Structures
1.
Amino acid sequence: MNRHRADTPESGNYDDSHRAFLQAFLSDPVKPVEDVVPLIAKILTAHEPDRQRLVNDITQPIINSMVQAVNAKIAALDFEIRSTRNQENRTLTYALVNTTSDTFTQLATSFSPDEIAYIKRLLDAMFEINNTKAREIMAVKGMDATNLAKAPRNRQSQAVDADEQAAEVDVNVKSIKHEEADKVLQQLVTQGFFQKSRRGWYSLAPRALMELRTYLKETYNEPPADDEDDPPPIIRIRDCEGCREIVTVGLRCGNRECGIRWHDGCGNQYFRGQQGGTRKCPACDTEWTGDVFVGERADRVNSRASTNGRSSMRTRGEEEDN
Ligand SMILES: [Zn+2]
Ligand SMILES: [Zn+2]
């Protein structure tokens, strides 16, 4: 095999080390940075045995150039190695993702059509049912997740707000068994799409946030209103004011009509920079209390609209969490 085709700029540096790097992502598509660093050290050392690389030699520019060279090669196949920061601890995760907006085509290789329909019901539960103006939980509790195994029978049984959604209900979708649902959930966790918290909530893991970014916004955010008289579009998926990535775990402005969201770390960084005085939302000037949450913490807080929540029985009146 001819390995010396360094004739175009993009492929100029592509060698066996990049092939090995891509290979590692093909066999395991989600890698935290603490796995990527020793992987690159090992690959480069194998590539040039005379020049041993240690973990400390692998700088961010080396990682970036490895990723860029691979991405130039695989872009035509609609794949890309992306990175995102964990919303809570800000650590980097890398993932080989499909860049086409139709992520479900890719899931179809591991799941049946009825299972895919189940996964969509899980997403609807996270981003519609458990994501209201009063409570942006954006997660689904273990038992509720299992119970979604049952497909809605007809339009009447659909959520009330789902006029639009009802049109999309496929009457051919069949329920799956509870055990099958648990297996799908398990697989989604193993594949790095979902994560399960200690309190038993399923939410989107970094890989899903990278792959489903477009899908989530297209599905759960309404397009801008055509007419001034139209009601403002419903926006259920919002980006962080700091890092501009989706927030499913973080903080929100206390003003329910305000669209400002932060990851905890991004918000703390911003408000640390604000010396003295009252901390205020940069968009609406509402006092920033830092205790209005996005994510499963929103379920525990005695929501300001306690009459509104159908899971208010779970409310435990904890106002402070950190
Ligand atoms: Zn952020
Ligand atoms: Zn605000």
2.
Amino acid sequence: MSSEKQTIIILGAGPAGLMLAFKLLQRAELNIELIIIEKRNHPGGIAASFQQEGIWLDYGSHRLHPSTPEHILNDIKNIIGPSLLKRVRNGRIRLQGHYLKFPLQPLDCLVHLPVSFIFGIFRDILKKPFRPSGPALSFADQLLHGLGPTICEKFYFPYAKKLWGCPPDQIDVEQARKRVSAGTVSKIVKKMLSFLPGVNSSEANVFYYPEEGIGQISEKLAAKVTDMDGQIIYDTTVTGITMEKSRGFSISVKKHNDVHKQLKADFIFSTIPVTRIVSLLASKRSCPALTAAESLTHRNMVFFYLLMECDQWQVVDAHYFPETDYIFSRISEGKNYNGTLTPRGKTIICCEIPCQHDDEIWLADDEKLKRLVLADMKKGAIPAKNLVKVFSKRQTNVYPVYTIGYSKKLRVIEQYLSKIPTLISLGRQGLFTHDNIHHTMMMADRAAHCLGINGQWDVDKWEEFCNEFSNYVVVD
Ligand SMILES: Cc1cc2nc3c(=O)[nH]c(=O)nc-3n(C[C@H](O)[C@H](O)[C@H](O)COP(=O)(O)OP(=O)(O)OC[C@H]3O[C@@H](n4cnc5c(N)ncnc54)[C@H](O)[C@@H]3O)c2cc1C
């Protein structure tokens, strides 16, 4: 055990911050006091849940994917116990006026997609050898080369515009690598085949889901962290970080009741937006990292919920809407995720509406959102049933936007932060990525192994792990 007690402060009680706390507290050889600071009054971050009318709801569709590394999955299973359910996916995607099973299945596509669409894909395959093959600069270049115009123009390009709010030729090529796991037609077919029963033993078509919503993972982890003598301070926002002359940090925090406090830390792990951490640290307005941080952008999301008087609205768990004709990108029905039939006579669905900070959607009241959502549900042939109530929730920074040139700015920030070896930024927002829960938990697991017993940080090991993280591809 190290001689001097180290104070470790983790910013953010989402899946990454909590898993990191759990992993650090498990290391008996570390002599640490561990505090998590969370601005909300509950754990879970974007992957939190809440209950309404006796129904567990998430902030949009959330599942724990079967690609979760085994040791992380085992940790979650041990912490949650039998409440972690294994469920079969049952999604649909709206394309060209038709619903297809999602994840896509070959026969279903052949039967339901318009002949012109299928013909277009075959034409694109034949033309592929003649498409320009220079280095791709943008999301559009990369996908056009790999997939051809039919799939791009009817599916990926409108989806990109909807999700990230900018044209696909202004989105960095990295976005295609991180978000599109099947970037060629042959990869799409291979992926579709992997979802056929009996083809893939890794059970590609299942997911894990806790009885009380995805947030139950974080709730249970938070309880475990507290049991292990970690402290979680909720309702508290970090408002400033100063590096002390000798060593460590002084962190200014503000409670929601406006009480200000100073906390001392030897080591900080931050899972809050990396753009924010730079603005908390940078003392000079002229700091290049601050300029870079201020020019990186995120998308926001409005989660619009509809309470209906019926046991179940649809048998499908999630409907995906890549086309821009619909304001929502996805609709999910909470009861279909944990498979509960109770409470009887009511169900709630959640529409995910990506938007910009302060745009028309972000500022819209529930009446306006209701009009827009109901009209598009009707257009999609899935009207509401016995609607009794609507409500909305909002989250900022849900998707980082990778406009061309973003990586240069991110590098400026990374270089700035690398000069502060006792402050590590990680997690989905800390690394400015789109990653899944299991990815961010892996980051936490890896980070916990880089801290030495006297508080020294293994820079080389962390760099190696960061290279590993940069290869993560988002699972939808
Ligand atoms: C619509 C949507 C659907 C998704 N679906 C899935 C899915 O099906 N499966 C999957 O694996 N992943 C999914 N994800 C991704 C998943 O939500 C994230 O991977 C996960 O939440 C990231 O965890 P994190 O701890 O890194 O970050 P976060 O969850 O963002 O947690 C960061 C925490 O920091 C806190 N914080 C921020 N600023 C401050 C501050 N100044 N002071 C104190 N605290 C602060 C926040 O309140 C938050 O609790 C989805 C994401 C979205 C947006």
3.
Amino acid sequence: MHTLRNNRTLHQTEVVDIIDVTPRMRRITIVGESLPLLGIGLPGQWMKVFVPTPGDEPPAGRAYTIRQFDHAAGQIAFDVVLHGDDGPGSRWAGRARRGDRLDVGGPRAGHMIDRSAASYILAGDATALPAIAAILEALPDGCQAAAFLEVADKAEERYLTPRPDQTITWLHSGTFVPGTTGLIERAVKAASLETEDCQVWIAGESSMMRSIRAHLLLDRRIIHPAIESAGYWKLGTADHRERD
Ligand SMILES: Cc1cc2nc3c(=O)[nH]c(=O)nc-3n(C[C@H](O)[C@H](O)[C@H](O)COP(=O)(O)OP(=O)(O)OC[C@H]3O[C@@H](n4cnc5c(N)ncnc54)[C@H](O)[C@@H]3O)c2cc1C
């Protein structure tokens, strides 16, 4: 079933399952009559989820990556970082209950894997884990991948199990917010990387993403078309929007 907001098609859905994948990552699964009609197949595709706001304000749209899509059942799972009550998305995820109703728009974008790439470099904070996990799962067998991932602590690492040809460098932000410590930037700069014919995907906190992208372009001389990057959020800014 559809409604329209700003000329965009919205899908009416209901929450059917909620599990904590890690202490700070909550998987929320929704079902909707119109979801089986959606064209979902690329890693990193995302939807605008309209979450409740306090008071009489209309629902707020927030971007979340499609982590799982069950076409037959018409179900989509989002993995949401629980960063507290300072934003409606995180607040909603912290309080979600089975039976909650919400509208979603999309799907949008998604990452085209270059199957001829010799190697892959991925970098991101906790918000990028759903997309990076999907990209790692979709990479051709034998394609070397190096991923630099910042999460709060060791308990968050169980989110993702890499294949033997995939190397994960985990960074722990501790009491700071993943993506804001400079740890990923330093790890990428210090790493020995295969940059010949590589493909790069970076997402997470905006300043972190920009710093890594600049390093790969200017210092490592990776060509611009080989790098896809997105600022998924920005420290101190609500509903930050930016792509590449
Ligand atoms: C294409 C795309 C895909 C995304 N996929 C995912 C996903 O799968 N899972 C996911 O969790 N996020 C994902 N994000 C990021 C998510 O949309 C943002 O983190 C968003 O700001 C969360 O909304 P909010 O209402 O919780 O906070 P907002 O209202 O946007 O912000 C309120 C405050 O919280 C801060 N803030 C926002 N996000 C974080 C954070 N992660 N940690 C600490 N502080 C934060 C802001 O700086 C601001 O000060 C994605 C973003 C994009 C653009």
